[in-house]
Predict the 3D structure of the following.
Amino acid sequence: MKHTIKRLAIAACATVALSAAHADELKIGMVLPLSGPFAAHGVQIENSVRLYIKQHGDTVAGRKIKLLIKDDTGIAPAISKRQAQNLLIQDKVDILAGFGMTPSAFAVAPLATETKTPMVVMNAATSSITTKSPYIVRTSMTLPQVAAPIAAWAVDNGIKTVYTVVADYGPGHDAEAQFIKTYTAGGGKIIGQARTPVGHPDFAPFLQKVKDAKPDAVFLFVPAGEQGVSFVKGFKERGLGEAGIRLIATGDMTDENVIEAMGDPALGVITSFHYSQAHDSDENRAFVKAYTEAYPGQRPNFWTVGGYDGMHVIYEALKKTDGDASGDAFMAAVKGMSWISPRGPVSIDPETRDIIQNVYIRKVERVDGVLQNVEFATVPDMKDPGKE
Ligand code: PHB
């Protein structure tokens, strides 16, 4: 009898010790495109998250960070949702993070609301995403935020007519609407609009229509990756440049993952964006050095910085809440947070939980033999204009 009680007591203590150890663990469940056409970008986020942990330690506010990473294959909202459900129900994660593509973030937002789980969006960039759950914070950008400055630049630089070409889904619609709004408000004229299929588009017929319409410039948004490369190649092959048409875009087109594959036809292209590997600051130089040392042969891009800053938000919020990751405490800690990112000074808008940041106008140049987006003008402290 005595022995049995003792054994039970030991067992009880072991259980308490075990659950205390588990309580100290903080699980971050990430949903990312790790296969399919956007896999390279998902890997960029995963890499930067691991780099952040390596640099800042794997324990914050007494909680040991454990990453659980799931592949959603890109634009596949049902898979994103299933992966997030598994992370929440089976793995009991404390925080959801990642979300490369807009449909993925839309699919998971209701789960964040139902379970009051913080959801850190590290890329997906349709403006309305943060309105879909009060537990979402975003550390990337929105398309209206980066499209407005290039529209203003076009007005100021003698581009009188534009043909817009955008991918036919959330971020493309946002980019198109904001570009047209800012550009026409400044007196510019839109002479054509096209929406291209989001998966594996053939740009040839669109490029021909643009050429026939003879605009001063074509404005492009396609999700970063191979699509930008094939658009630029088609633009060159069909002689749009020789016909006097300029190519302007959000920086998704010339991101560091693919810019070298575009080669010389990318030279001189003007884009607007929140991050360039060539950004001239000590913080960015340190970041680029650390990233390229950790992942030789790879270049950091906007997905990398979105992931890295997402981890910064998680770490700093947990420090403020003393390790409490419950939705309401975490979100209160996130609102209004400000820091110096590799991209420049940033803060989290307390109203929208979106990031406020500089947006830069850049020109593609060769720097030490490498194609880079060289920043030459800055629109400071931009809020997302897409929610106005
Ligand atoms: C998105 O799906 O939200 C998205 C994907 C790629 C980009 C930008 C936005 O380059």
About this structure: The pocket of P-hydroxybenzoic acid is lined by residues 101-102, 124-126, 171, 223-224, 252 (CB under 6 Å). DSSP finds twelve helices and 15 strands in the chain. The chain has two domains: 2-141+282-353, 144-273+359-387. The first strand starts at residue 25 and ends at 32.
